[in-house]
Structures are given as structure tokens and as C-alpha cells.
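Let's do one together. I've listed all components of the complex below, 550 residues spread over two lines.
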Amino acid sequence: MKKLKRSSRLVEMTQYLLSRPHTLISLTAFADRYQSAKSSISEDLAIIKEVFEEEGIGELQTLAGAAGGVKYMPHMKESTALEIMEEVCLKLEQPDRVLPGGYLYMTDMLGQPELLADVGRMFATAFMGRRIDVIMTVETKGIPLAYATAACLNIPVVIVRRDNKVTEGSAVSINYVSGSNKRIQTMSLARRALKEESHVLIIDDFMKAGGTIQGMMDLLHEFKATVAGVGVFVESGEVELEERLLEDYVSLAKLTAVDMKTKQTKVVPGNYFKG
Amino acid sequence: MKKLKRSSRLVEMTQYLLSRPHTLISLTAFADRYQSAKSSISEDLAIIKEVFEEEGIGELQTLAGAAGGVKYMPHMKESTALEIMEEVCLKLEQPDRVLPGGYLYMTDMLGQPELLADVGRMFATAFMGRRIDVIMTVETKGIPLAYATAACLNIPVVIVRRDNKVTEGSAVSINYVSGSNKRIQTMSLARRALKEESHVLIIDDFMKAGGTIQGMMDLLHEFKATVAGVGVFVESGEVELEERLLEDYVSLAKLTAVDMKTKQTKVVPGNYFKG
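Okay, and this is what the predicted structure of the assembly comes out as:
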């Protein structure tokens, strides 16, 4: 790269950091890239750090020493997250979204890249600091949420299949009971898809009693993996407490009431906002 | 937002633009946001534009006039794309990737957020300038590629289901013959998922004869939609010419030979690189 003026270097460094979240970049690498003294690079990083933190874009963690460098960690301010989710809740309350079984139609919203990027940033904020090697979800609707979160945390995604079509070598299958319709279903994951003893963050779009997520946890047990956390976009509060299969999860929104006759629903921000 | 110094403003403007691809931002909006004169904003944008274009990050399109403003369009240099795909081809040639039926195991690669971001940028570059309202894919493995592309183009994704479980209101289903195993299969899309007369970019992970993509095209016909383009990550050259169902597509890599006995494959960069 040709030597840049300071103003151009700031633009380039900003884009470089933003496109490499959770990646340690050494001062030496930056100094080489921009043919500049480390002292100038440090000054630039201080400016970037201040803007990122003031605007709530993310943290710029600097590590001192020979192995040191800088790492950008995407983040979202709680006030920004709440503003976004309050708008989401209003949209989710539109009466034409009520589906049989008390589900909500939200496929359209899960198709919007801007909202997904925001949601990924919220989950990345909620689980920042935990050891996470991989994100797991089950097909189909949780997939974009899992990838949006993975992009912020710079870790891979594995997708559990809802059948046991083994086209990818040996697989582990388990049966689980979906809490909502009480039917026994199968989910499976190829052996090669997940290293044993991984720390796994589970992400899904909707949770009622939690049967599907419990199924993923059982599957993880077969891989000797550790559950690093559970994040769901919307939880349903329309579940008896004794039916709820798990306690420790983060939800961004909560469906608190569904009237199937009038198609009226009530959706409020989830437990993410009670920390 | 408080008034920023020029260096901080450059950092903030860079991140603001990068997080809003294909979105027109007026000079007035920037001037208000940063409490600065339009002339200063224009100077800043000129610096950002130069860096983005020199580094091949993207184009910064400026539109003059009252409705004018600036729009960031992610882009990737052909040389960068080729470098990335040559590395991908080498990985795809690893012998343990050959699956029954001449398929390749690439789920692990489609789980990597960094590669997905690169691939999304390649497709965004290939189809830049076309009118595209929405991206379509069929579950499951094409989904991350579709979202990565959608994030660059700032348009929504619709996912076609491989069954006809109608849980989202009325749906359109079609039968199609998968070119590889000649079995009749079903795919369906909820009526509400796609507006009629949309311009649709089809994205998928793997194409052999093209039966699945032809199925999506038939489905689009039912929605009076127009196919704006077809992009596949890997195409298989292991198909007789007369079996190939479509001509007009963009592939990033091409599987040219599979020896099921030795598990040796040959993968080369796709027709993306012959434009």
C-alpha cells in the first residue's frame, strides 16, 4: 500500500478494523501497512477508539507488550438497542402476524439485512467476554440471526438439520419433543461439523417452552460441548412456568399475550433489557 | 451528536457509510449530523472516496442536485477476488471432501463469516448496476451466501422451503426434478413472502445440472417475478452439456473433475473471472 496522508490513513484504518472484528492486529502490522511510525499509529488508534466508544459502535481493546496490538469488538449501546427493539415490538404486534398455534409471522423481518446486523450486534454485546468457539442454530429461521451474530464475533456457525439425511458422513441424531405441538422430531449434526469440547452459543428465532433449544443442548452433550449461552429473538410468555424447559437465556423481545379470536398480541422488549 | 474535529469526523463518516451500503445519504443529513458546512463534508467525502476506490473497498457515488447525496456501494477488485477464490479452490480439492454423488463437503467453509463476507462482496460486484429488489435462495446451504450478498446490496432475502408445510398462510408450491438424483421434489414459498413483479437475484451454493435453480425460476414465474441474475458459489462441470438447464449464471468456482475411487478432485475459479 502506498504511503497515505493522515486523513486518508484514518479512513483506511477505520474500514480495516471494522471489517475484522475480534481479530488482534499488531501495531507492527499497522506500521508496516501504512509505512508509518508506531507512535503515529497509536495516535490514530486513540482517535478511532474515542469515536467508536463515544458513538457506541464498539470497543477498541489495546493490548500492550510484544504480542500486543488492537482488537475491535462490535457493541451496541443499551439505549440504541431498546429504541430498535421497541420499534420491532410495534411491528410484531400487527394483527396479521398471528399464526395458528400462537406463533408470529416474522419471516419478513428476518429477511432485512439492516435489522439482522443490529440484532447480531445486540447478541454480540450480550455475550461479550464469554468464551465462544462456535454458534449453533437449527434450520431454518434462526440461520440469519446466527450468521449476523457470528459476523460480529468472528466465529463460525454450525447448522443443525431437522432431519437425518446423512449426506455429510457420519452424523449424530437425537429425538426431541417440540414444546409447542408435543410431536417427537429429529435433529442431527454431522460429526465433522463440530469439534468435541467446543464452547457453543445457541441462537434461535423463537422460543416457547424451549423444547427445540433443549434438543440442541442434548445434541451438544453428545459432542462433549459446553453451552456458552442461549439467545433468542422472541420468547413467548404464553407458557406455563412448569412447562418452561430452561431458565438461562437472553431474549430480545417477549410475546406476552395472544388473543387468537381478535388476533391481538402484546409484544414487549425481552429480558436482554433487564440486566 | 457533538461537534467533532475533522479527524474524528472522518472516522465517524467512514463507519456511517460502511454500515449503510446502497443507501443514499444527503449532504444535508451529513451537515446536520456533524454540525459542519456542506463544503467541509464534501471535502471529507472526497478523501473517503479516494481511499475506498484506491483500496478497492467500494465506490462512493455522488449524486448532485437537490435530491443528491452520496451512496456507498461495496465492491471487490478482481485481483483480490481471484486470490481469495484460488485459496478456496485449493481447500475444496482436499480429498476428504468428496461425498457420494459427486458432491463436495463445504459446509465448514460456508460457516466462516469472513469468507462469506468476501463472497457476498463478489456477488454484489458481479450484479452491481442491475435492478434487484430481493434475493432468493432455497434452504439450507445457500442461506448464508444469500444473506452475505443481501448485506452488501441492502435488500431483503426470501427463503424457499423444501417442503410444503404451510405455516405462514397461503403458499405456492411447485414440483421440480433435481438434476443430480432425478427425484421429484417440492419447494414452496409463502404468498406474502414476495411481492408480485419483483426483480429477483437467485443465489445458491452448488449447481450441477441446475434443476433446483430451474425450480426457483418456475416458482418466480408464479409470482410474475423477473430473474435479475443467478449466482452460485460452486458449479459442477461434471454434467453433459445437453443436461445443463441454464446458461446465464455466475459461478465463483468450478468443479471440473471428480475421481470417486481416488477421491481426487479438480476445482478451478469459475466463470466470474472470465468477464
